[in-house]
Design goal:
The protein has about 200 residues and is α/β, with parallel strands linked by helices. It has one domain (about 5-180): Rossmann fold (3-Layer(aba) Sandwich). Helices cover about 30% and strands about 25% of the residues. The protein contains seven helices and seven strands. It has helices at about 20-25, 70-75, 90-95, 95-105, 130-140, 155-170, 175-185; strands at about 5-10, 40-50, 50-60, 80-85, 115-120, 145-150, 190. A seven-stranded mixed β-sheet has the order 2-3-1-4-5-6-7, sandwiched between helices. It is globular and about 45 Å long. The structure holds guanosine-5'-triphosphate (GTP) and magnesium ion (MG). Guanosine-5'-triphosphate binds next to α1.
């Protein structure tokens, strides 16, 4: 049983793939059928880090605007945030700025290192509307880290959750050892780190 708990709030435009990423993380697969989240869904899973187990409490919020009033409530007690957009949908990337404003307003004092921007659906490279460089530059400008993921394949799914939790467990901004070694590997461009600011 893990003593340490970490509350992660998933935000982002509707259909960006938040619930699919959570499913892929929890079960290793996702359903292709779209079933929009109604309000918010809660899940939990223990992640084993070098410093010990951490019980992850995942709050998967609905991106549809009719539920937008709920998001601030969950951001208020977030210890970490996954901000997902769809790489094949320019409009969802444009909303990253609005979500960053929401985070700044409601997750008061949350260090930017505890926010990870995810460009999802990297498997649909031929339909991509946002380049890796542009998304990484925007994330760095906001002080956030950036990673490209695919819930379908899945690619980088476990890694993004582990990276985020490691930021909470080691708030000095250093990456957990497994991430450090991967940063030197050929897949390293998938994780771009923003400047390490403290709250
Ligand atoms: N090709 C591809 N499709 C994906 C991926 N992730 C999600 N999808 C599809 O995108 C659609 C939306 O996925 P959801 O996970 O329901 O999106 P959401 O962000 O939770 O949406 P809301 O609950 O409305 O906020 C579904 O049809 C998924 O099958 C991915 O990595 N690749
Ligand atoms: Mg959902």
């Amino acid at each position: 049983m893990a003593d340490r708990r970490c509350k992660v709030v998933c935000v982002g435009t509707t259909r960006a793939g938040k619930s699919s990423l959570v499913q892929a993380f929890l079960y290793g697969y996702m359903s292709r059928e779209y079933a929009g989240t109604v309000g918010v869904e809660f899940h939990s899973k223990t992640v084993f880090l070098p410093d010990g187990p951490v019980r992850l409490q995942l709050w998967d919020t609905a991106g549809h605007e009719r539920f937008s009033a709920l998001v601030p409530t969950y951001l208020k007690s977030a210890e970490a945030v996954l901000l997902t957009f769809d790489l094949t949908d320019r409009a969802s990337f444009d909303e990253v700025t609005q979500y960053a404003e929401l985070i700044a307003k409601h997750a008061v004092g949350l260090a930017p290192t505890r926010v990870l921007v995810l460009g999802n659906k990297s498997d649909l490279d031929d339909q991509r509307q946002v380049s890796h460089q542009e998304a990484a530059a925007k994330s760095i400008e906001l002080g956030y880290d950036y990673m490209e993921v695919s819930a379908t394949q899945p690619t980088n799914v476990v890694r993004c959750f582990r990276h985020l939790v490691a930021q909470v467990v080691a708030p000095d901004g250093r990456l957990e050892p497994t991430c450090m070694s991967r940063l030197r590997s050929p897949c390293s461009p998938s994780l771009i780190s923003g400047p390490k600011r403290r709250s």
